[in-house]
C-alpha cells in the first residue's frame, strides 16, 4: 500500500533533551539517500532528538556502514541511488537484526513496492516526507533502543569481557551464544591483540561448565616439555620429575582448555592431541593407565589455519577436528566506532583507579577514528595507558604517544626517506597516491591504506576547503 505524506521541514529545536541517563539507550538511525539536502536536514534533526545517526549516499557506502556499525533501530532507504537500488542493500543484510525499515522514493512503482514487501520492509513512502511522520519513526526507534537495552547481555554491546557495538561484533556475540552451551570444539582465529582469549573466556563463562578455565600458549613451551605440560607426568618418568604432575587437561577437568597458538605445536604432539580429542583419554608420561577427562577444548591462533596446513606446520586432520565451530575475531580497524567505545572504557577504568577525571582531547578523538590500529585492542589499551601517564591539565593527547614498536615495524617495511614534509603533507600524499593507484575508487583506497572510507572522505573534504595550493 502506497502512502503519500507532505514535505519534511528541517526544524532545529533549541534546548533539545540530552540523554544524560546512562540507562537510556540512544537509538541508532541509518539514512541512505543521494539527496544531500534531505540527508543533512534529516541527520541534524535526528541528532537533536538524541539519535546516533549514520548516513550513506550509495549502496556501497551503506554496505560498509552496516558492516562496521550496530544494526540500526531505524533505516530510511532511498530506492534510486547512483550505484543501484536501495533494496540491493537488504539482499546483503539480515533484516531481523534491524529495527524499522522504511523505503523512500520519488518514483513509486508496483514492481519496487512488491519487492520491498518481500524483503520485510515496514513502510513504503512517497517523497516528500512529512516531519510529523519522521517524529513518529524516531519515537518508535527510541522505544526499540530501550527494549534492546533491557534484553539479554549477549544481545547488548558486551559479551563477557568483550565490548563492541558494531554489526560484525554482534554477529560474533551470537556465535558465542550459540556454541557456548554445547561441547563442540571451537577454533578461534584472528590477528594478534584482537581478543581471541576473551572470546574463549566468554564461551566458558556462558557455558554450563563448572570446572576451571585453563590456558596454555603452545608457542611459549619448549617442544620437549609440551607433552608433560599438557598431559602430565609420573614421578621418575624423566630426569627432574621428582613428583607426580597433573597436566593442563587434568587441571581443566569439567571446564575449558584454551590451546593458544596451537599451530606452533610439534607435529609429533599434534598426532597425540588428535587421539585425545577423539577419545578424551589421556596418559601421563611414564604412566601405564589412562585417565578420561571431560574438557571442552578451544584452539586459537593468529595465523590462517588453512595456510598453516598448506605450509606443512599443521596436520590437516587435526585442523578439521578442531574446526568444529570456527570463530574469526575481527580486527579493530573493521569495527567502526568500537575503537571509541573501547578507549572510553579504558580511560574510565584509569580514572576510577586513580581518582581522576581525565578526558580525551579533540585531536585524540579524531586520532582514534582515523588510526588503523595494527596492534588491535591491545595496542589501543597500551596507547591509552601511556597517554594517561603523560596527560597534562586533564587532557589525554593520544596521538602524541604512538607505539614506537609499531612505528619501527612500519618503517622497516620500506625504504622511507623524509624530505622535510609535515605529517599532514605525507598523509595527503599517501591518500592521493592510493586514489591514483585505485582509479579514484575511495573504498578500495581506504582498504589499501587500512582506514575507513569515512576517513578518506573527511580528508578529501578538508583538502578541498584548503584549496589547490595547500
TrEMBL record:
Residues 162-389 form the Sigma-54 factor interaction domain. Gene3D superfamilies: 1.10.8.60, 3.40.50.2300, Homeodomain-like, P-loop containing nucleotide triphosphate hydrolases. One of its GO terms (biological process) is regulation of DNA-templated transcription. SUPFAM superfamilies: CheY-like, Homeodomain-like, P-loop containing nucleoside triphosphate hydrolases. Residues 28-142 form the Response regulatory domain. GO terms for molecular function: ATP binding; sequence-specific DNA binding. Pfam families: AAA_lid_14, HTH_8, Response_reg, Sigma54_activat. The modification 4-aspartylphosphate is found at residue 78. Keywords: ATP-binding, DNA-binding, Nucleotide-binding, Phosphoprotein, Transcription, Transcription regulation. It comes from the Bacteria. The keyword DNA-binding applies. This is Sigma-54-dependent Fis family transcriptional regulator.
Amino acid at each position: 500500500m502506497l502512502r503519500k505524506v507532505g514535505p519534511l521541514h528541517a526544524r532545529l529545536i533549541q534546548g533539545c533533551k540530552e540523554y544524560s541517563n546512562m540507562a537510556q539507550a540512544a537509538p541508532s538511525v541509518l539514512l541512505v539517500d543521494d539527496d544531500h539536502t534531505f540527508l543533512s536536514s534529516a541527520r541534524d534533526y535526528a541528532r537533536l532528538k538524541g539519535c546516533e545517526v549514520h548516513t550513506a549516499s550509495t549502496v556501497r557506502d551503506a554496505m560498509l556502514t552496516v558492516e562496521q556499525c550496530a544494526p540500526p533501530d531505524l533505516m530510511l532507504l532511498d530506492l534510486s541511488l547512483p550505484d543501484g537500488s536501495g533494496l540491493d542493500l537488504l539482499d546483503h543484510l539480515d533484516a531481523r537484526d534491524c529495527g524499522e525499515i522504511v523505503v523512500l522514493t520519488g518514483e513509486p512503482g508496483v514492481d519496487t513496492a512488491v519487492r520491498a514487501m518481500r524483503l520485510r520492509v515496514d513502510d513504503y513512502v512517497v517523497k516528500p516526507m512529512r516531519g510529523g511522520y519522521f517524529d513518529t519513526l524516531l519515537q518508535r526507534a527510541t522505544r526499540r533502543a530501550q527494549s534492546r537495552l533491557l534484553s539479554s547481555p549477549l544481545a547488548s554491546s558486551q559479551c563477557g569481557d568483550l565490548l563492541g557495538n558494531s554489526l560484525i561484533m554482534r554477529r560474533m556475540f551470537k556465535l558465542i551464544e550459540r556454541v557456548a552451551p554445547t561441547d563442540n570444539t571451537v577454533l578461534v582465529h584472528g590477528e594478534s591483540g584482537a581478543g581471541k582469549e576473551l572470546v574463549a573466556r566468554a564461551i566458558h563463562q556462558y557455558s554450563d561448565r563448572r570446572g576451571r578455565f585453563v590456558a596454555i600458549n603452545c608457542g611459549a613451551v619448549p617442544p620437549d616439555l609440551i607433552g608433560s605440560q599438557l598431559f602430565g607426568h609420573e614421578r621418575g618418568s624423566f630426569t627432574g620429575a621428582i613428583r607426580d604432575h597433573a597436566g593442563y587437561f587434568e587441571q581443566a577437568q569439567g571446564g575449558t582448555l584454551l590451546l593458544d597458538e596451537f599451530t606452533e605445536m610439534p607435529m609429533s604432539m599434534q598426532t597425540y592431541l588428535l587421539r585425545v580429542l577423539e577419545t578424551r583419554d589421556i596418559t601421563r608420561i611414564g604412566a601405564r593407565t589412562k585417565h578420561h577427562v571431560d574438557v571442552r577444548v578451544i584452539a586459537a591462533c593468529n595465523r590462517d589455519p588453512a595456510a598453516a596446513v598448506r605450509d606443512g606446520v599443521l596436520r590437516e586432520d587435526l585442523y578439521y577436528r578442531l574446526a568444529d565451530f570456527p570463530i574469526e575475531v575481527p580486527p579493530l580497524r573493521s569495527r567502526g566506532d568500537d575503537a571509541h567505545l573501547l578507549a572510553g572504557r579504558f580511560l574510565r577504568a584509569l580514572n576510577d583507579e586513580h581518582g581522576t577525571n581525565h578526558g580525551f582531547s579533540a585531536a585524540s578523538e579524531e586520532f582514534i577514528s582515523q588510526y588503523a590500529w595494527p596492534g588491535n585492542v591491545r595496542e589501543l589499551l597500551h596507547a591509552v595507558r601511556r597517554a594517561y601517564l603523560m596527560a597534562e591539565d586533564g587532557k589525554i593527547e593520544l596521538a602524541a604517544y604512538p607505539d614506537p614498536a609499531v612505528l619501527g615495524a612500519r618503517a622497516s617495511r620500506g625504504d622511507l626517506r623524509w624530505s622535510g614534509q609535515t605529517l599532514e603533507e605525507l598523509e595527503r600524499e599517501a591518500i592521493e597516491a592510493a586514489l591514483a593507484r585505485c582509479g579514484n575508487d575511495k573504498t578500495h583506497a581506504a582498504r589499501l591504506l587500512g582506514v575507513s572510507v569515512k576517513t578518506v572522505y573527511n580528508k578529501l573534504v578538508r583538502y578541498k576547503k584548503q584549496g589547490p595550493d595547500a
